[in-house]
Amino acid sequence: MTPLPEPEPVRAPQDSLGKLFLRFLRFGALAWGGPVAQIDMIRQELVAQEKWITPGHFKRLLAIYQVLPGPEAHELCVHFGMVARGRWGGVVAGLGFMLPGFVLMFLLSWLYVTAGLTNAVIAAIFVGIQPAVVALIVRAVHRIGGHSLTDAPLWAIGILAAAGEALGVSFWIALPLAGLGYVVGAARRWAWAAVLGGIFAVALWQSSPVIAGRVPLLPRTETAIATDTRQTGQASPAALFGSGLRAGLLTFGGAYTAIPFLKNDAVERGRWMSERDFIDGVALSGVLPAPLIIFSTFVGYFGGGPLGALSITLGIFLPAFGFSLLFFRQLESAMANPLLKHFLEGVTAAVVGLIAVTAAKLAFTTLTNPAAGAIFAIALAVAWRWKSRWAVPAIILGAGAAGWLFPGN
Known about the structure:
mainly alpha; 17 helices
């Protein structure tokens, strides 16, 4: 058994829980610009200026949280809260960081659902934003894939997972097989790799309605119309909590990886919101000071109103709290285990494939005219070239302005 590493010296101030909460509440209120900007803000104050932990220790922690599911910035806040005041410190730090974004998204969800898009100007703004969100998801696929698909077997896993998703195979089958496949592949157990490949082929044949000829690969017109019907309050709080928990446990590589799982529950299976409403929720989260995963609150509000929003948010953030609170010292030792590391790398590669297919499906629904295509192309080019923390909010606001200036296109 690998011994636990010796704890490194820390210099966290002995603040009260209230003061600790206010410190991380301020971080949450300033959490603009996505995970890179959020992590850098935390690093600058707590590591570079106040020296709570060493820079080397911070780099190791960040590497661990990038492998584990959940928003890395939030997990780091929980970890730093524990460094300062133990488990209760972790709880209040995590709550402080997520609270501003949650409150804002909750209010926007209520406004969106109650007011709807009856105002022509607001409707035009959201129509302009939707292709830009698809562009951001495409950019996320490239970015996450660049970090995750680092060798030929991982590329193969990503492609096979994408094919399975496109043909109807459940991700509950694809993801464990992907993790196990990379474990046995790294160990050069080719016989076991062949067995897993056979299991995937059988799952593809049995699960895929496309291969079995029960449905066409592209959705029929009436199906697309049905998923554009808004039906709020269609899921129980327990079901929404479970949906959030599943997504929270599968967000490898960033919050964008939660999109296919929540979309599957809300749009394709539960049908309590349309694809366009789903895209609007992702767009709103991009202009808030919060981890992007806060769009889950919007999804939950559609599924079950205020209680649904609370339930799904609790579920999706629970893993981010749990890994730090329960395995504070064991994380570094666990991530040094090559079997676990390879399993998570295989799952992450498969998730990249799932996001790619989700992006393609959203593009099929959204890019329906030349104007939408132009907004998509411009947004993708800006996302590719502009590395600022303000890039995502600027792209969304710019696309909304284009929809407002050129309504009906």
